[in-house]
Amino acid sequence: MHTFYNKAEDYVDEMLEGIIRAFPDELKLVPGQNRAVMRADAPVADKVAILTGGGSGHLPVFMGYVGKGLVDGAAVGNVFASPSMNQMFSLTKAADAGKGVLYLYGNYGGDVMNFEMASELAREQGIRVETVLVADDVASAARDNRADRRGVAGLFFGYKVAGACADTGASLEEVAATTREAIDNVRSIGVAISPCEVPGAGKPSFTLAENEMEIGMGIHGEAGIKRRKRMPADEVTESMMSLLMEDLPFASGDTVSVLVNSLGATPLEELFIIYRNTARLLSDKGISVYRPYVGRYATSMEMAGFSITLFRLNDRFRRYLDHPVWTPFIREARSR
Amino acid sequence: MTASSPRQDVLAILQRLAAVFEEHKPYLNELDAKLGDGDHGLSMARGFTAAARHASQNPQLTIGGVLAEGGMQFNEAAGSTIGILMFTAMKEAGKALAERNALSLSELAQALEAAMRGIMKRGKADIGQKTILDSLQPVLEVLQRAGQNPVTDIRALISTTIEGARGGAEHTRVLKSAAGRARWFVDRSEGEIDPGAVSGYLIIKTIGEYLSEKLRL
Fold first, then answer.
1. Cβ–Cβ contacts within 10 Å for residue B214, how many?
2. Which residues pair with A226 in a beta bridge?
3. A81: contact with B, CB 8 A cutoff
4. Are residues A75 and A31 in the same domain?
5. Which residue of B has its CA nearest to A205?
6. Among candidates A250, A217, A254, which has minimal Cα distance to A236?
7. CATH of the domain at A120
8. Interface A:B, Cβ pairs < 8 A
9. How far away is chain B from the Cα of A134, in angstroms, using its nearest Cα?
10. Is a pLDDT exceeding 90 seen at residue A207?
């Protein structure tokens, strides 16, 4: 066993307890709910509340983004399992400041069903709810079937835009429409070389041979595009980038933000080797990069691998990326 | 059909389900690891344990209440897709049974049908997509057919429903995953039995065996 925890069934609760202990001035549990976290100052007056949630095992997704400038609260599920509708509903009631609530989360069946049910309960109580699903993984479905795609690291850009837009005092409809437009301009793809293991499951979520990798593999080990022999960083990056570029498509003259993200085990050193080639490929195509992010932004516990996310910017999105944020896992105090 | 109230029966069945899924947890996790992320047994055991606990702590609840609130507790403990689907199924079944004091075959069929319809609607799933529905559909057919004629041998009928659920679950081996996260594992899913369908079978088997035993008393 290469991991540190106590009992598998306590994995999520003990992690949550640790996070609350580490950031008591920034995070709090929703009263009466041990699986929903919100900003210590929530509900925030005169602001649409941005709420998210999903299975555990992906930190900093989801709780790590709860804070000023990003997300108001997150419902916390078991590892790789959606939170319950009641956890989401309690969060909704606690975080709504009267200006409505945006549900912003990844496109997975369990999350969708639970959030839909929570939104039905919220509407019955007069709380306005809009939903934006993040479905940015180009490897998970064909382009003409985009609504079926899974949501991965692109969530981060969704949070950035929604959080900044909500801080301007925009209405719920406006925050939802802006976030949806942003997500329409976000594309991601991942690659995995070794699996993770759900605590208590007793074995890894998938197996890959020592010399294999899977391009397009999902963050829960969902099947990707194909398995092949491992390649050097530049070649992997190049084949992933060509899948990404043609999908939107990104074109000469565009400005993009780039997120090179570790799935957990892949170190920063390797991420920068990957970023180096990513930036070069973009520059070759006449695409300029604004505000790149390199690090652990959406993980699968100890999975080794990485993802690349591109976000095509306009002036407004660029401003929103500059908006300061202050959360346990990301602190951008001021714009450049 | 018996001395104990249907509400007591529901409680007893929930307690048995908690024990059954605790026992089958490793097996179901293993099946799920082939098609998903390997936590299905864990979710089912957690869910039924929470539902049974809630039912035993709240004796004032009607059948509908036991099922609806028990489903809520199931969802709370298990989360996940199966959590919300079981909540929906239990709530809808509870609505169909409402405050009945005795259960007839046709009412059981109605409850099962309501539960299945709830799963289809919330899960946007259909028969034949390699889900829990595939083990329940044969049971529904048996119950609906039986409801049309006087039943002479209730225990034989119960065996037939359990056999139907088993066959339905077994049949998922030849089906391709078309709903839920398992659809991402289509290539891996061929030839494998669906863990949700196995759970459907275990639920039917547990209920059926409980009813059979009661008839013997």
1. 14
2. A215
3. yes
4. yes
5. B37
6. A217
7. 3.40.50.10440
8. 103
9. 16
10. no
Query: Are both A190 and A173 inside the same structural domain?
Result: no
Contact yes or no for B202/B21 (Cβ under 8 A):
yes
pTM of the model: 0.91
Question: Which pLDDT does position B217 carry in this prediction?
Answer: 64
CA dist A263 and A125 (Å) reads 39
**Is there a domain that residue A3 lies in?**
no
A124/A97 same-domain check: yes
Query: Does position A317 have pLDDT exceeding 70, yes or no?
Result: yes
Instruction: Give the confidence band of B1 by pLDDT, cuts at 50, 70, 90.
Output: very low
**A2 classed as catalytic:** no
Q: What is the pLDDT of residue B107?
A: 86
- Tokens standing for residue A291: 């505000």
Tell me which of A150, A184, A218 is where a domain ends: A184
User: DSSP states of A122-188 as a string?
Assistant: HHHTT--EEEEEE--BTTSS-GGGGGGPPP-TTHHHHHHHHHHHHHTT--HHHHHHHHHHHHHTEEE
Residues A130, A174 within the same domain: yes
Angstrom distance (rounded) from CA A103 to CA B199: 31
Looking at residues A167-193, what average pLDDT do you find?
Answer: 98
Task: Provide the domain count of chain A.
Answer: 2
Task: Give the chain A residue nearest B76 (alpha carbons).
Answer: A84
Tell me which residue range forms the domain holding A174.
8-184
Given a contact cutoff of 8 angstroms between Cβ atoms, the answer to whether A37 and A20 are in contact is yes
By the 8 A CB rule, do A76 and A53 touch? yes
Whichever domain contains A297, its CATH number is: 3.30.1180.20
Any CB–CB contact under 8 A between A62 and chain B? no
DSSP 3-state of A19: helix
Structural domains in chain B, sorted by start: 6-216 (1.25.40.340)
Place of tokens 């992010």: A293
CB spacing of B38 vs A222 below 8 angstroms: no
On whether both A174 and A200 belong to a single domain, the answer is no
Residues 11-30 of B with CB under 8 A from A: 26, 29
**Within-domain flag for A309:** yes
- The pLDDT tens digits for A296-314 are 999 999 999 999 999 999 9
Whether residue A107 lies within 8 A of chain B, CB to CB, comes out as no
Nearest of A193, A224, A187, A200 to residue A81 by alpha carbon: A200
Residue in B22, B30, B75, B88 to test binding to A, most A beta-carbons within 10 Å:
B75
pLDDT tens for each residue of B150-184:
778 889 999 999 999 999 999 999 998 877 766 66
Q: Which of A16, A62, A84 to mutate to test the interface with B (most CBs of B within 10 A)?
A: A84
B75 with A86: Cβ contact below 8 A: yes
Q: What is the pLDDT of residues A70-122, one digit of tens each?
A: 999 999 999 999 999 999 999 999 999 999 999 999 999 999 999 999 999 99
Q: Taking 80 as the threshold, does the pLDDT of residue B38 lie above it? A: no
User: What pLDDT is recorded for position A105?
Assistant: 98
Q: What is the ipTM of this complex?
A: 0.83
> Span B26-44, mean pLDDT?
86
Domain boundary among A132, A151, A184: A184
